[in-house]
Write a structure and sequence with these properties.
Blueprint (H helix, E strand, L loop, with lengths): L1 E4 L8 E4 L9 E10 L2 H5 L17 E9 L12 E4 L37 E5 L3 E3 L6 H4 L2 H14 L6 E5 L3 H12 L4 E5 L3 H7 L6 E3 L6 H9 L5 E4 L6 H8 L5 E4 L11 H5 L4 E4 L5 H12 L9 E5 L4 H7 L8 E4 L3
Parallel strand pairs: 8-9, 8-11, 9-10, 11-12, 12-13, 14-15
Antiparallel strand pairs: 1-2, 3-4, 3-6, 3-15, 4-5, 5-7
Helix pairs in contact: 3-4, 3-9
C-alpha cells in the first residue's frame, strides 16, 4: 500500500510503498477515507523530548470503512461498514487503567501513529475494541474530526467547568476550537478565544466563542478584562508553546484554574510562588476515553455540532508532505486532511 513515512528531523514525509497491515484475530482492517493532520504529529516530528522513530507512519484522526474482520471480532462489524477508531493500543488487564476504560493511561499503551503504524496510509489495522461504527448522519469528513473534538470535550469535562464561568481559550487551532465549543455547551458565561490568525478568530465565533481577541493588539489579560469585567475563572491553554503555563498562572485570579491541553515537547519552567499566592489550580489533561468519542459521535449524528468550518483543505499523497511542513509555521489553515484514495 501507499503511505507517508517519517525519516528524521528536517526531512519531509516520504511517500512510499509499504507492506499492507495484517488483520489479527481481534482486529479490524480498514480502508482510510480521510485522516486529519494533528498538531501532535507536528510536535512529534520536530526537536523535543519525544521524536517518533525513523520509519514511523503517522496519523490517528480517522474516517474509514471495514475491509476485513478478524476471527475473534466476527459479528462486531460488517465489510463496507463506515467506522472510526480510538487510537489507543493498550493491554486489556491493568486493574487501575484498562479495566476502568482508561487505556490511554496504560503503561503499555502506544498511540496509533506514534508507535503503531498510523493512518497516513491507504489501510489501517486497529483493535476491534477501539473501533466505533458511524451513523449514516455522520459524514466521512466529520468523522475524521471526531478525535480533535473528543480532545476538547475531554478537556472541558475534566476541568469541572461550572455554568456561568468566564473562560479564556488560548489558541484557535482544532483543539482550541473544540475546547471553546464544549465550554459553550457546558454553560460558560463568556468564552473568549485568543488567536493571532484573523481567519482562525473568525472560525472561533462559529465554535462557541462569544468574543475573540488578538494577542498582538495588547495584553490578553487586559483585553479579557474589558470584555468580562475581570480575569478569567478558567484558562484553557491549547497552543503548547514554552512559557504559556506561567503566562496562564499570571493571568488567573485567586482560586482560578489553568487547564493545559496544548502539547509542549520542550522543557518548561514555572515560578511556583506565583500560583501559591493565588491558590491557583493547574491541571493537565491527556487525550480522551472511548466514551468521549461516543459522546462526540452522538452530538454529530444529532446535528448539535457542525465541525465543517474547521476543515480548510483536503490533500492527496502528492501534496501531503508540503502541506504537513507548511503547518509548522503560522498559517491561516486550520484542519488539513489527507484523502488517500
Amino acid at each position: 500500500m501507499k503511505a507517508a513515512v517519517f525519516h528524521g528531523l528536517g526531512k519531509p514525509l516520504a511517500i512510499e510503498t509499504v507492506p499492507d497491515p495484517i488483520c489479527g484475530p481481534g482486529d479490524v482492517l480498514m480502508r482510510i477515507n480521510y485522516c486529519g493532520i494533528c498538531g501532535s504529529d507536528l510536535h512529534a516530528t520536530q526537536e523535543g523530548v519525544f521524536v517518533v522513530p525513523d520509519g514511523t507512519i503517522l496519523g490517528h484522526e480517522v474516517a474509514a470503512e471495514v475491509v476485513e474482520v478478524g476471527r475473534d471480532a466476527k459479528g462486531l462489524f460488517k465489510i463496507g461498514q463506515r467506522v472510526t477508531t480510538v487510537p489507543i493500543n493498550a493491554c486489556p488487564n491493568c486493574s487501575r487503567t484498562c479495566r476502568l476504560g482508561l487505556g490511554i493511561h496504560c503503561p503499555s499503551n502506544q498511540i496509533t501513529g506514534f508507535g503503531i503504524p498510523g493512518a497516513y496510509a491507504e489501510y489501517l489495522r486497529a483493535d476491534a475494541n477501539h473501533v466505533l461504527a458511524l451513523p449514516n448522519e455522520v459524514s466521512d469528513e466529520n468523522a475524521a474530526m471526531v478525535e480533535p473534538l473528543a480532545v476538547g470535550f475531554h478537556a472541558v469535562d475534566r476541568s469541572g467547568l461550572k455554568a456561568g464561568a468566564n473562560v479564556l481559550v488560548l489558541g484557535a487551532g482544532p483543539i482550541g476550537l473544540s475546547t471553546a465549543l464544549f465550554a459553550y455547551f457546558a454553560g460558560a458565561r463568556r468564552v473568549v478565544v485568543s488567536e493571532l490568525a484573523p481567519d482562525r478568530r473568525k472560525r472561533a465565533l462559529k465554535f462557541g466563542a462569544t468574543h475573540v481577541i488578538d494577542p498582538g493588539m495588547g495584553e490578553v489579560k487586559d483585553q479579557f478584562a474589558e470584555i468580562a469585567g475581570g480575569p478569567p475563572d478558567i484558562i484553557f491553554e491549547c497552543v503548547g508553546v514554552k512559557g504559556l503555563i506561567q503566562h496562564c498562572i499570571n493571568m488567573l485570579p485567586p482560586f482560578g484554574k489553568a487547564v493545559v491541553v496544548g502539547v509542549c515537547m520542550q522543557p518548561d519552567t514555572i515560578v511556583p510562588i506565583s500560583g501559591i499566592l493565588k491558590e491557583a489550580a493547574l491541571q493537565f489533561v491527556l487525550g480522551y476515553s472511548k466514551r468521549d468519542f461516543e459522546v462526540v459521535i452522538d452530538f454529530l449524528a444529532a446535528g448539535r455540532i457542525d465541525p465543517k468550518p474547521m476543515l480548510t483543505e483536503v490533500v492527496d499523497f502528492a501534496k501531503l508532505p508540503a502541506a504537513f511542513e507548511a503547518l509548522r509555521k503560522p498559517t491561516q489553515q486550520c484542519k488539513v486532511m489527507l484523502k488517500p484514495h
